[in-house]
Structures are given as C-alpha cells and as structure tokens.
Amino acid sequence: MKCKKFILKNHFDGMPKKTDFKLMEEDLPPLKDGDVLFEAVFLSVDPYMRAVSSKLPIGITMIGAQVARVKESKHPDFKVGDNVVGQFGWRTHTVANPDEVVSGFGEKSRPYILPDFGDVPLSAALGVLGMPGNTAWFGLTKICKPKAGETLVVTAAAGAVGSLVGQIGKILDLKVIGFAGADDKCKMLTEELNFDYAFNYKTRDITEALKEAAPNGVDCYFDNVGGPISSAVMNEMNTFGRVACCGSISAYNADPKNPPLAPVVQNAIVLKQLSLQGFLSSRWKDCWFEGIVQNLEFIKQGKLKFKESVIKGFEKMDEAFLSMFTGDNTGKIVIEV
Ligand SMILES: NC(=O)C1=CN([C@@H]2O[C@H](COP(=O)(O)OP(=O)(O)OC[C@H]3O[C@@H](n4cnc5c(N)ncnc54)[C@H](OP(=O)(O)O)[C@@H]3O)[C@@H](O)[C@H]2O)C=CC1
Ligand SMILES: C/C=C/C(C)=O
C-alpha cells in the first residue's frame, strides 16, 4: 500500500513557498507486532512548523498532528475504527508503533484515542478540543492568572488560539481587547465572539487604541505575535501585569541573522513589575484531557464558539500552511483529506 506525504525540500528563506515542499508517494511497510495502520482524516497546519522546521533535516516528512482512524492494528490498546490524534506529520497513511511516535519537538508523543465529542465535529480535536484550545485555556488561566474585572489584551485574536483566549476571557469576566489584521475579523470578534473591543493592527495605532479601550491600563497580555505590537501593549500595562508569551509569529519569517527590532520593554517590565513567561502547551500534557473537557463543556453551555477554515484535499497542505502567514485564516485551519 502507498501513502502520500509532503517532505521539506528546502529550509524556508523568509516567507515559506510552495516550492519548499515536495509531494511524494511512499510504500508502507507491513505491520509488525505493536504496529498500527492509521489513515488521516483531518490534518493540522500550525505556525510552530515554521519556527521548528529550520532545525529539521531536509527531506524529512513535514511535522504535525492529524486526526486519524485506525485501519489495522497489532497493538492491544488500539482497535480498528478508533479515532486518534497523532503526531504523524503531513502524510495520508502511517504505519507506526504508538509507543514510539515522536512529535516535531522531538518528544515522545503517544497518539491518544478521542472521546465522543457529541455534535462537535472530529476536526475540533485539532483546534478548540486539542492543542490550540488547551493553549488558550491553560495559557490564560495558568500564566496570565486573570481576576474578574481585569483587562486582557490578545493578539492574533481572530486565529485558532486567540479567538478562544478572548472568549474564555469573557467567560472569566474580563474586559477583552483583541488585535487582528483585518476589519472583517475585528467585526466578527465583537459581533460574534463577545470581545469588548477589536482593532485592526494594520490600520490603528496600538497605543492610541489601548488608551481608548483600556484607559485604566492592561492587566493581562496573551502575546501571540511579539515584535513592536507587543512592546506597545506592555507599555500600557498596569503594575504587576502578567504576560503569557505564547508565540511570536511576526518574526517567524525573519532572517535569523538580522532579526527585526522592537522597542525596548525593560522600562515597562521593571517599573510596572511585570511578569513575562514563555510556555509550550505540552507542559500541561499530564492534564491534557482536563482542558479538552473544560472547553467541550463551554461549547455545550453555548459560551464558547469555534471557527474553522476547512481546506479540502491533502494536496493543499502546503497552500493551507502558507495562508497562516498572510492572515487568510479565521480560527483554526484544518485540512480535510
Ligand atoms: N506556546 C504554545 O504552546 C503555542 C503557541 N502558539 C502560537 O500562537 C500564535 C497563534 O497561533 P495559531 O492560533 O495557531 O495561529 P493563527 O490561527 O492565529 O494564525 C496565524 C495568524 O497570525 C496572524 N499573523 C500572521 N503574521 C503576522 C504578523 N506579522 N503580525 C501579526 N499577526 C500576524 C494572522 O492573522 P491576522 O490577520 O490577525 O494578521 C494569522 O491568521 C503563533 O505565534 C503560534 O506560534 C500556538 C499554539 C501553541
Ligand atoms: C506547540 C506550539 C508552539 C508554538 C510556539 O507555536
């Protein structure tokens, strides 16, 4: 049996290009004891793939998670028909021993069998009921440690993580201000997702926008983008403000030898006694399902909406990946095979 896969043909130079990938076929090996044959149903593209891939060897199968169905099994814990989330990369079929699967971050990552989501589609296992959802829930509650009545700013606010952070902020009784890169995204955030304010960072001055929306200052900042936007937000923060350093997509395509400069933030950090903490969602792997159960509960209660940009066709993995860097997506991008 053959599978299709995308390999990394070149290390990215600036903005990733379609020519950096190659779509190939691979013969799958027969199953050994302990092996499982998985068939991809939905695949994920995520910004971290850009950040991590520069350290990966050329020719490697592109890294990433997928929702896959068990088609054959020689492993006692996996039965035919189970749906799993596995770090199998950009490939349609995978033969692997689940106990030996390794993530794009080089860590052992056993595929997990998905519980019944009820009416929520399986694709949500890559978004609100998966890594981005847990990033939002744990990152906001454990790193920003918000208190009711405080003011939260979130960047990349219309994306997979940001759109959830803002809504969870509202559930926790915060004033929520989002920044996104298009007027229609901002309209969606305030009109559909309950944000108090949303500003287009491409057309609005960040400091002015915050003076208008947060005249009493910002307590929590969930930083998805880094760079000058983040410097401006930190300068508007209150004493003992907390910054969850989640991502820095504004710099992922930069030349590492000539990284972009942002205004210094040390004055704000010192004088306002801010706490900044970086994190990876995997730090909560031991309580992963608690996050999924919590977000599923919010969805069932009608408090948490999730947006997906679904792209059909495995062959479009590369295009889907590129679209995150041009801001074409709203919510989580998933590829339906
Ligand atoms: N620490 C962790 O464990 C995790 C971190 N992350 C990080 O969170 C961030 C968001 O990820 P995710 O929600 O999956 O992706 P998104 O769904 O938010 O997609 C990326 C979005 O980023 C915005 N963007 C792209 N380039 C820039 C730029 N130069 N400046 C500002 N915004 C930009 C675009 O929206 P727009 O139209 O608004 O510009 C784009 O739609 C990333 O930095 C990612 O690396 C994600 C998951 C886990
Ligand atoms: C797990 C994802 C990490 C980042 C930095 O995106």
Provide a short characterization of the protein structure.
With 337 residues, the protein is of the alpha/beta class.
Structure notes:
Strands 3, 4, 5, 6, 7, 14 and 15 form a seven-stranded mixed beta sheet that branches. A six-stranded parallel beta sheet has the order 10-9-8-11-12-13, sandwiched between helices. The chain has a two-stranded antiparallel sheet with strand order 1-2. α2 crosses α3 (162-171). The mean pLDDT is 97. By secondary structure, the protein is of the alpha/beta class. It is built from nine helices and 15 strands. It folds into two domains: 2-121 and 307-336, Alpha-Beta Complex (Quinone Oxidoreductase, Chain A, domain 1); 131-281, NAD(P)-binding Rossmann-like Domain (Rossmann fold, 3-Layer(aba) Sandwich). Helix content is 24%, strand content 25%. α6 links the parallel β11 and β12 (237-245). The chain has helices at 48-53, 131-144, 162-171, 183-191, 206-213, 227-235, 266-271, 288-300, 317-323, and strands at 2-8, 21-27, 36-44, 66-73, 83-86, 93-96, 112-113, 151-155, 175-180, 197-200, 218-223, 237-245, 275-278, 308-312, 332-336. It binds NADPH dihydro-nicotinamide-adenine-dinucleotide phosphate and the ligand C/C=C/C(C)=O. The ligand C/C=C/C(C)=O is lined by residues 47-48, 51, 247, 280-281. Its main location: cytoplasm. Belongs to the NADP-dependent oxidoreductase L4BD family. It catalyses: hexanal + NADP(+) = (E)-hex-2-enal + NADPH + H(+); nonan-2-one + NADP(+) = (3E)-nonen-2-one + NADPH + H(+); 13,14-dihydro-15-oxo-prostaglandin F1alpha + NADP(+) = 15-oxoprostaglandin F1alpha + NADPH + H(+); an n-alkanal + NADP(+) = an alk-2-enal + NADPH + H(+). One of its GO terms (molecular function) is 15-oxoprostaglandin 13-reductase [NAD(P)+] activity. It comes from Anasa tristis (Squash bug).
